[in-house]
């Protein structure tokens, strides 16, 4: 299958977050991002108002990871196995590749922004893929149909946001993916038992 060409916006976001991870947010200049993404200043400003606007692009980076992982989901996996796998892989990517201070800054900015709240945007790929998996679980009887897939998604997303918030609050003093690996099965068990 031919490889999907990376969009310019995606290239800028990936380059910026790689630099933020390696150099730190404050030490990364706009010129660094433009150079690393092989774009021009005009192209950069076509997509973003400035370096600060890239903080809201973190959810886009997460969604890109979900899109990369989707083809690796196997048909014989249960909904629970799919959600555990996706959660582990994305949380591992976050703890290994994103500075905890940037996650904390993103969370705080989401509370005060007048722009759309990128983490809670229902159009995100994250919400689409996870809601679809939850619906599979309901359709197969794996999850009790006392709630809709959308209601389960609200709880699932709340769990992930809460864990990310705690991880940020405690400055990554614990393994994000390891902690989630222990707690998420209990959340999914309540979906199976019914709410």
Describe the structure.
This protein has helices at residues 8-23, 30-36, 41-47, 58-69, 79-97, 100-112, 125-140, 149-169, 176-193. It is mainly alpha-helical. The longest helix has 21 residues, at 149-169.
List the defining traits of the structure above.
single chain, 195 residues, mainly alpha, Arc Repressor Mutant, subunit A, 2 domains, 66% helix
Task: Outline the fold blueprint.
Layout: H1 8-23, H2 30-36, H3 41-47, H4 58-69, H5 79-97, H6 100-112, H7 125-140, H8 149-169, H9 176-193
Helix pairs in contact: 1-2, 1-4, 4-5, 5-7, 5-9, 6-8, 7-8, 8-9
Q: What best-fitting shape do the alpha-carbon axes yield?
A: elongated
Overall tally of structural domains:
2
First-last Cα distance: 42 Å
Tally of DSSP β-strands: 0
């Amino acid at each position: 299958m031919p490889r999907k060409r990376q969009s310019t916006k995606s290239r800028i976001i990936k380059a910026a977050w790689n630099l933020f991870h390696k150099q730190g947010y404050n030490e990364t200049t706009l010129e660094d991002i433009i150079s690393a993404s092989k774009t021009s200043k005009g192209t950069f400003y076509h997509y973003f108002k400035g370096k600060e606007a890239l903080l809201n692009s973190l959810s886009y980076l997460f969604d890109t990871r979900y899109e990369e992982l989707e083809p690796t989901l196997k048909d014989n996996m249960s909904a629970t196995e799919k959600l555990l796998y996706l959660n582990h892989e994305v949380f591992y990517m976050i703890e290994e590749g994103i500075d905890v201070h940037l996650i904390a800054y993103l969370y705080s900015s989401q509370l005060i922004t007048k722009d759309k709240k990128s983490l809670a945007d229902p159009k995100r790929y994250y919400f689409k893929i996870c809601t679809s998996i939850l619906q599979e679980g309901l359709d197969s009887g794996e999850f009790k149909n006392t709630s809709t897939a959308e209601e389960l998604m609200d709880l699932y997303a709340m769990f992930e946001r809460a864990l990310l918030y705690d991880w940020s609050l405690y400055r990554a003093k614990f393994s994000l993916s390891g902690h989630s690996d222990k707690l998420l099965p209990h959340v999914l068990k309540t979906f199976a038992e019914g709410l």
